[in-house]
């Protein structure tokens, strides 16, 4: 079934099938708002999370000089991260697709006592444990980035490839197995087993690639219901488009003219850093819940508010950053977008764990982020 997604600014995606709600139909029959419009709606009606307008301006001022750093640029994706592919090859694209298909839920029950994987003498945790496991498998001659391999991997093989070097296994290993089989099968059946084929079909449009991913790969359909409206975050789908742009260095098939139309990727780390910077605030009740480590469910009202407000908060920070540079006569549209802001803030959060330990992240176990 072709999905109908209201594009940013309310434009329908060309070629989508119009799915009209039945009289008295539920939200499920409504069109799905794109991530940017979803974030606008959620931020406007959120109760337990608030975007602090003055805080977003302060955050933009704080980030003003950071924009000039190499860390705030497309090249940082390779230059600063030794586990990421070095090339812009079809194999590197296959690596990105595999990793972003599994790019979810690494947080540990007990801080510092989670899954970690040793690779070339160094221990990696969180997202980097996923990258380390993939590179370890490739070094061991396991064709883990080949769709024909992971489409039929057994649970035992998945447990072996993603085995932890601590007592704590990688979370959601059964879900990872299911998602691997599903995505590998779709890639084989619809794209000849090649993610490059999927990228080429997007004709250098980030939004077209986003729609291809969401329409064809069910595990990427990161959606929710908010005030009886169907909203979307598409966190893994958007980060897949962004990582595709990054691994291809913004050139040739990865020269997306509309890369700036993506939002940030609504995970569990970005909200932490936005609260740390004073750009976003939680109600006392929500902050207490998060400090207690209460498990939220994917789609809960407060979880949707945290994710939607994070996306909208970063939209405002991007706008304020561009305004500050415009006032200096500099047009930074090519240098500042939600993708590069997201990457920078995510790395900042990882490098400032200690400073941010007093701000809890929201705990959800799901395959979406
Ligand atoms: N918003 C956003 N979320 C991101 C990433 C990345 C990895 N990106 C790297 C590539 C280029 C960048 O420069 C980064 O170095 C992972 N995640 C999410 O975080 C969570 C894992 O966190 P932790 O448990 O601390 O490792 C989990 O939900 C995962 O899906 C990102 O960039 N943005």
List the helices and strands and how they pair.
Layout: E1 5-6, E2 32-33, H1 35-45, E3 49-51, H2 53-63, H3 76-79, H4 90-101, E4 116-119, E5 122-125, H5 127-139, H6 147-150, H7 155-161, H8 173-191, H9 195-201, H10 206-216, E6 223-226, E7 229-232, H11 235-247, H12 270-276, E8 280-282, H13 284-291, E9 295-296, H14 301-327, H15 338-351, E10 363-364
Parallel strand pairs: 1-2, 9-10
Antiparallel strand pairs: 3-8, 4-5, 6-7
Helix pairs in contact: 1-14, 2-14, 4-11, 10-11
The structure holds the ligand Nc1nc2c(c(CN[C@H]3C=C[C@H](O)[C@@H]3O)cn2[C@@H]2O[C@H](COP(=O)(O)O)[C@@H](O)[C@H]2O)c(=O)[nH]1.
The ligand Nc1nc2c(c(CN[C@H]3C=C[C@H](O)[C@@H]3O)cn2[C@@H]2O[C@H](COP(=O)(O)O)[C@@H](O)[C@H]2O)c(=O)[nH]1 binds near residues 104, 267, 270, 343 and 347.
Tell me what the structure shows.
GO terms for molecular function: hydrolase activity. 46% of the residues lie in helices and 8% in strands. A hairpin with a 2-residue loop joins strand 6 and strand 7 (229-232). The protein has 369 residues and is mainly α. The protein has a domain at 35-79 and 205-356. The strands form 5 sheets. It has a two-stranded parallel ribbon with strand order 1-2. A two-stranded antiparallel sheet has the order 3-8. It contains 15 helices and 10 strands.
């Amino acid at each position: 079934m072709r999905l109908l997604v209201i594009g940013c600014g309310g434009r329908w995606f060309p070629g989508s099938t119009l799915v009209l709600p039945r009289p008295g139909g539920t939200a499920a029959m409504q069109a799905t708002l794109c991530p940017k419009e979803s974030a606008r709606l959620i931020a406007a009606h959120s109760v337990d999370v608030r975007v602090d307008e003055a805080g977003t301006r302060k955050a933009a001022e704080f980030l003003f000089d950071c924009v000039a750093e190499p860390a705030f640029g497309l090249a940082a994706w390779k230059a600063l991260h030794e586990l990421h592919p070095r090339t812009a090859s079809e194999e590197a694209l296959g690596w990105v697709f595999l990793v972003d298909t599994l790019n979810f839920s690494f947080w540990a029950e007990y801080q510092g006592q989670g899954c970690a994987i040793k690779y070339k003498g160094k221990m990696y945790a969180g997202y980097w444990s996923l990258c380390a496991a993939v590179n370890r498998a490739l070094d061991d001659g396991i064709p883990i980035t080949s769709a024909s391999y992971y489409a039929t991997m057994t649970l035992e093989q998945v447990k072996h490839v993603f085995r932890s070097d601590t007592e704590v296994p990688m979370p959601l290993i059964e879900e990872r197995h299911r998602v691997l089989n599903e995505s590998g099968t779709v890639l084989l059946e619809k794209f000849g087993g090649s993610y490059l084929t999927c990228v080429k079909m997007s004709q250098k449009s980030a939004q077209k690639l986003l729609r291809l991913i969401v329409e064809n790969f069910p595990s990427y359909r990161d959606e929710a219901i908010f005030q009886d409206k169907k909203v979307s975050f598409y966190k893994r789908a958007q980060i897949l488009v962004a990582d595709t742009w990054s691994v291809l260095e913004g050139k040739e098939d990865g020269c997306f003219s509309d890369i700036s139309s993506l939002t940030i990727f609504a995970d569990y780390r970005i909200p932490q850093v936005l609260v740390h910077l004073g750009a976003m605030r939680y109600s006392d009740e929500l902050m207490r819940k998060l400090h207690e480590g209460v498990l939220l469910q994917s789609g809960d009202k407060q979880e949707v508010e945290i994710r939607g407000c994070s996306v909208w908060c970063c939209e405002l920070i991007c706008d304020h950053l561009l305004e500050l540079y415009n006032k200096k006569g500099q047009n930074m549209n090519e240098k500042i977008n939600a993708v590069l802001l997201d990457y920078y803030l995510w790395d900042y959060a990882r490098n400032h764990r200690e400073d941010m330990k007093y701000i809890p992240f929201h705990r959800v176990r799901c395959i979406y982020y």
